[in-house]
Design brief:
With about 375 residues, the chain is an alpha+beta fold. About 30% of the residues lie in helices and about 25% in strands. It has two domains: about 260 residues, Aminopeptidase (3-Layer(aba) Sandwich), CATH 3.40.630; about 110 residues, 2-Layer Sandwich (Alpha-Beta Plaits). The protein is built from ten helices and 17 strands. A six-stranded mixed sheet has the order 1-2-6-3-7-15, sandwiched between helices. β1 and β2 form a beta hairpin. α2 packs across α10, α4 crosses α10 and α8 packs across α10.
């Protein structure tokens, strides 16, 4: 049994708060992650832990820690440092944050700088106590998860191999063992321009695009016993940005389509073309898939790594985990489906994702550290 004194020292709530607040203090919208990533690298280096900066696009490197500690399994821990844009209505400065007891409010506090902080503290503890485990520990702090996942893609494309991966996204109450995929469908509609006073001489691309959007709900979506396919129109544009009395000959809309197993980008495009053909429209419809693309993913509830996780989770939380399936996409999609690494999501308890007054329960950052340490030492026994 693990020394609980070591666990408590490795998961101090005050240090978890200070580290999370430090990460939140960096504005790290997609494209601006460089400073916070260098701060994370500097923290590891100050702890005597070797670190690598992997270039991606622009000044936004991935941080990679690799600790080799003899023969044994390979465990990958992953988190992202980018955040969504600031929402309106914050009760505090989103980057200074505000603590109220065990709650900490700040942009990215839940999604997911607290998870990155938990990963960092767990890595430090395992680096200090290499007598407790054997194998290889890899930790990656990546960029761009809220946009195109170029950070995770770079990790996968470099040929990452591991026997298990834990993404520390917020999921304390419902650890995630699978989720939908995603395709971004772009529809371009071409009609014929005419004078706005003589619309009968043209083909209004805006109207024809709207006819198709109005029929989207009639499109059958993929079926899966544990995941739900869905779609939503994200944008719609037609005509000129400048006021002109001209029937628009071009229109465009974008659809976010969440997919399940059995659905592909080609099958989604085929369905869109079939729906457009059913309109008997005089306009031309062209469809394409834009990045980012995410495949669906799933880890069997019977997988051995979940047995190890369940034991660690129950000791800390006092009950068995209530597993869930994500209705969103994340870097876990790539690690599971593209890198073929058994993957699940487990991290602190957060509130208000992508909203003002986003917050995290600080006690669950410390709890996440302890679960990670129990899991790691059982998964990679000395």
């Amino acid at each position: 049994m693990l020394d609980t004194t070591w666990l408590d020292e490795s998961s101090d709530i005050e240090e978890a708060y200070q580290l999370t607040a430090m990460l939140v203090s960096y504005k790290s919208y997609p494209g601006l992650e460089g400073p916070v990533q260098r701060a994370i690298a500097a923290w590891f280096e100050a702890e005597g832990i070797p670190v690598e900066l992997q270039e991606t696009e622009g000044d936004r490197p991935n941080v990679i820690v690799r600790i080799e500690n003899g023969p044994g399994p390979v465990l990958l821990l992953n988190g992202h440092v980018d955040t969504v844009l600031e929402a309106q209505g914050w009760k505090c400065d989103p980057w200074k944050g505000q603590r109220e007891g065990n709650m900490f409010y700040g942009l990215g506090a839940a999604d997911m700088k607290s998870g990155v902080a938990a990963m960092m503290l767990a890595v430090r503890a395992l680096h200090r106590r290499r007598d407790l485990w054997k194998g290889t520990l890899i930790a990656t702090s990546v960029v761009d998860e809220e946009a195109f996942s170029i950070g995770a893609r770079a990790i996968v494309d470099m040929g990452i191999k591991a026997d298990a991966c834990i993404v520390t996204e917020p999921s304390w109450d419902k650890p995630v063992i699978g989720g939908v995929g995603k395709v971004l469908v772009r529809a371009d509609i071409t009609g014929k321009s005419s004078h706005g006073s003589m619309p009968e001489e043209g083909i209004n691309a805006a109207v024809e695009a709207a006819r198709l959007v109005a029929k989207l709900d009639s499109m059958p979506l993929g079926q899966h016993p544990r995941m739900k396919s869905s779609q939503a129109v994200l944008s719609f544009h037609s005509g000129s940005d400048q006021y002109v009395i001209t029937v628009p000959e071009k229109a465009r809309f974008t659809i976010n389509r969440h997919t399940v197993f059995g659905e592909t980008d080609e099958s989604v495009l085929a369905e869109m073309r079939e729906l457009a053909d059913s309109l008997n429209s005089p306009a031309r419809f062209d469809f394409a898939i834009d990045p980012p693309y995410y495949p669906p993913w799933e880890l069997s509830p019977d997988h051995p790594i979940l047995g190890i996780f369940e034991k660690a989770f129950k000791i800390e939380v006092g009950k068995d985990p209530d597993y869930s399936y994500a209705t969103f996409v994340a870097d876990s999609n790539y690690f599971s489906s593209d890198a073929n690494i058994p993957t699940f999501i487990f991290g602190p308890k957060g509130y208000g994702y992508h909203q003002c007054n986003e917050s995290v329960d600080l006690s669950t950052i410390a709890g996440t550290v302890r679960v990670l340490l129990r899991f790691a030492t059982e998964f990679m026994p000395a």
